[in-house]
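**User:** Everyone, produce a chain:

**Assistant:**
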Amino acid sequence: MERVEVWITVLRWGIVVYTPLQWEKVVNNFMLIGEYEHTLDEKKRVMLPKAFRSALGKKMVITRGLDNCLFVYPRNGWEKVASKLDALSFTQADTRGFSRFILSGAAEVEADGAGRILIPDHQKEFAGLKRDVVFAGVSDRVEIWDKEAWKSYKQRIEKNADALAEKLGEIGAF
């Protein structure tokens, strides 16, 4: 049996395990929350908010999301999503379509040394991203929105927050 030296750091959001060979981050029990505005540069790169960098890791997966935004998952979070989609029956048109929507729209991206990621053209077009974007932490993922689309969406949801809370209360979710 090969012996490997391991360093472990316990942080507020999870555990980081380092080995001399991989410097691999293993994140458990993290929660991505908050709103941050950033700007796409001329090369379609955008700075990840510092609050999200550790939990997302150096490599992450971006895919088409719902409501015309992008979903960003850390690698281990993406693997959970992909496994759940893989477990769905391929004989039903709805599940095939949704799996294609999420999986074919996905791309693995890597943060550069400055914490920037490159957003692929097809995703930028899907989400209608212009210059100003908003990163929204939504528990297990980060969403990337065009700033104006986020503003409009947020206003609509805020107007209906009481009714939404009531519906969630009826099903025991809130």
User: Anything to note?
Assistant: The CA atoms of residues 10 and 99 lie 35 Å apart. Helices lie at 50-56, 75-87, 93-104, 121-127, 147-159, 161-170.
